[in-house]
Amino acid sequence: MEETESTDQNSELDEQVISAEDKATAKKEKLERERVELLNRVNGGSIAKVRDRVAFILNYSNEARNSDIALAWLYWQTFEKEKFDGSTVTEEELKNLTKQGTLSRHRAKIQNEYKLFEADVAVKQYRRVLRNNNIQEAVEDKPKGLKTYSVYIDETGKNQKYISVGSLWILEITSLLAYKELDDWKHSKALKYEFHFSDLDRFRLPMFKEFFNKFLELHPAISFKLIVLNNKGFVDKNSVITDLTYHLLKKGVDHENTSGRAPLPRVLQVWIDEDEKGSDTLKIENIKERLASQKMEGLFLEEFQAIDSSSHLYIQIIDLFTGAINRKLHQTDARNHKDDFAEYVLDTLGFDIDAIDTENNDKDHSTVFNLR
């Protein structure tokens, strides 16, 4: 009898342990899902809710990450400017603004639970987020007024004669705020389809052109960058794309810095068109590790993420750009609406396809073309 009771008790304990483990796993998965969804909304400009807007501010302001006062000030300036002139605020005006405590609570969840847009180490210690001085790695404090390179990447031609990796560089926060205007434009046209070069037909051609032109109109502070390689002799095409993406980012940062248009120090965030989850993760980790090893002074690496193009207009824009490049590189005698669109894109950006060295198959010496 006692043995039976003991067995039952052990069984109950096992079930409790399993239940606790299941709950912990479920909580971890829920947080990761929420984290990715938040990143996607911030990155895609879909920031209607307070938490999304707080994350947007944290993403682009190191001061806001470190100071709840700076966070509130920037939040009001950006999202409640009709109530706040950006200089002073009266007690009465304060009552009509989103409360600082509300913003701070969202900031704490984003930084402490999602581990996104974190504060400098000294601030985290002060906030008691880091316990027992158990810091796993040295984290360099970022300078004030830090801006961002937000880079969106797509590749094409993996199984063709030429491999191309294209990128869209957003250099100012005002450009990201314009995302909503682009999304509103799409909704005003009642468009249900996505903008992918492969889906282009002659009936959609005028709207594809209008979409690309509208993007350029709303985003003056952007750059397109491109790297192309002759695909001859390569077996591991995924490795080639990873190498090209690394060179594109490294040389792209060098160009923006040395040209003086978007100089360091800056944060680098990278968003690639989602392919396969496992291979995407390996590619991203490889690229980020190689960039970190370069120890580029003033470059701070943050989010590198694969995202679904169906919900991101910027990924669709870079899809159209790389598709246009690929179409012209593999030009045939037969012409149709895709040739028309490809020429429209390249003419609009002022790019001559003949500038590409189509014989080059040396990854390390591939040229990065900077457009706009």
Task: Report on the architecture of this protein.
Helices cover 53% and strands 13% of the residues. The protein has 372 residues and is α/β, with parallel strands linked by helices. The chain has two domains: 25-126, no CATH class; 147-371, Nucleotidyltransferase, domain 5, CATH 3.30.420.10. The chain has a six-stranded mixed beta sheet with strand order 5-4-1-2-3-6, with helices on both faces. A hairpin with a 5-residue loop joins strand 1 and strand 2. Helix 4 packs across helix 6, helix 9 packs antiparallel against helix 10 and helix 11 crosses helix 12 (277-293). The chain is globular, with a radius of gyration of 24 Å.
List keywords for this structure.
alpha/beta; 372 residues; single chain; Nucleotidyltransferase, domain 5; 2 domains; 53% helix
Low-confidence parts lasting 5 or more residues at pLDDT below 50? 130-139
The CATH homologous superfamily of the largest domain is called Ribonuclease H-like superfamily/Ribonuclease H
Q: Helix count, per DSSP?
A: 14
Strand content: 5-15%
Mean pLDDT: 87
CATH class of the largest domain: Alpha Beta
Helix content: 40-55%
- CATH architecture assignment name of the largest domain: 2-Layer Sandwich
> How far apart are the termini?
83 Å
Report the CATH topology name of the largest domain.
Nucleotidyltransferase, domain 5
Please give the largest β-sheet: 6 strands, mixed
Structural class: alpha/beta
Shape: globular
The whole-angstrom Rg is: 24 Å
> Please, how many domains?
2
How many DSSP E strands?
6
Q: Order of helices and strands, N to C? A: HHHHHHHEEHHHEHEHEHHE
**Major sheet strand order:** 5-4-1-2-3-6
